[in-house]
Amino acid sequence: MTMNDLNEPTAGSARLRSIEDLRGPAGRIEALLNTGQEEARYAALVCHPHPLFGGTMHNKVVYHAMKAFQSFGLPVLRFNFRGAGLSEGTHDDGHGEVGDLRAALDWLHREYERPILFAGFSFGSSVGLRACCGDERVKGIAALGLPVRVGGREYHYNFLASCRQPKLFVSGTTDEYGPRRELEAVVAGAAVPATLVLVPGADHFFAGKLEQMQLALSGWIETHFVPAVAPK
């Protein structure tokens, strides 16, 4: 299980800047903000896959998710969980990472004072669901490549039965960490609205299928949150 990162422009441009004042329970959190339009109706937060397998905020799936939000003019915050990149602390098997994510939500809410949309990939989606469900600031949650069974370990999402925010689940039909039948059971047990999109032929990392994943996310954003403006 490896998480390939994407080479992208370094921070410093007008549309991408490093965040220096984001701190969580374990200390400083390394983060990047893709700035949006001043009139944006939402702000967005995107989380990365498992750091022990190379996952960081520069991951390809995370980058494509960020671009989906950015295409609607939304500001998008990405950060590295504790122990990843330059973030302080050590990996905590998804427990302390919930606190990291909540610190990022707090920062984004203070910075923009507007509703938040969330997307996470793999480990980031599992942590994100636990941190965002029930948080009134978060108006929509997208889980990309949600892990259900990894290396004999099963992930349980019974709490989704009381998670009332709109939820999107996007996975590949050949995702080895999210078997279709088990993933469908997770979504069926979630409170409505919950939408499952299966990308034909895609594996856990959406290899060769990143555009299809991005289109599914963009369609959900447009349908539920930021309707496209008809040309004049």
What is shown here, in short?
It is built from five helices and twelve strands.
Structure, explained:
There is one protein chain. With 232 residues, the chain is of the alpha/beta class. The chain has a single domain (16-224), classed as Rossmann fold, CATH 3.40.50.1820. Helices cover 27% and strands 22% of the residues. The chain contains 5 helices and 12 strands. It has helices at 60-70, 96-112, 123-132, 180-188, 210-224, and strands spanning 16-19, 23-24, 27-28, 31-34, 43-47, 76-79, 116-121, 138-144, 149-150, 153-154, 167-172, 194-199. β9 (149-150) and β10 (153-154) form a beta hairpin. α1 (60-70) runs parallel beside α5 (210-224) and α2 (96-112) packs across α3 (123-132). The protein is globular. The termini are far apart.
Can you tell me the CATH class? Alpha Beta
Radius of gyration: 16 Å
Strand order of the largest sheet: 1-4-6-5-7-8-11-12
**Count of individual beta strands:** 12
Mean pLDDT: 93
If classified by CATH, what would the architecture be?
3-Layer(aba) Sandwich
What's the shape? Answer: globular
Q: Distance N terminus to C terminus? A: 48 Å
Contiguous low-pLDDT stretches (5 residues minimum) are none
The H-and-E topology, N to C, reads as: EEEEEHEHEHEEEEHEH
Total tally of structural domains: 1
Relevant CATH superfamily: Alpha/Beta hydrolase fold, catalytic domain
> Structural class, from helix and strand content?
alpha/beta
Can you summarize the main beta sheet?
Answer: 8 strands, mixed
CATH topology: Rossmann fold
Summed up, the helix count is: 5
Proportion of β residues?
A: 15-25%
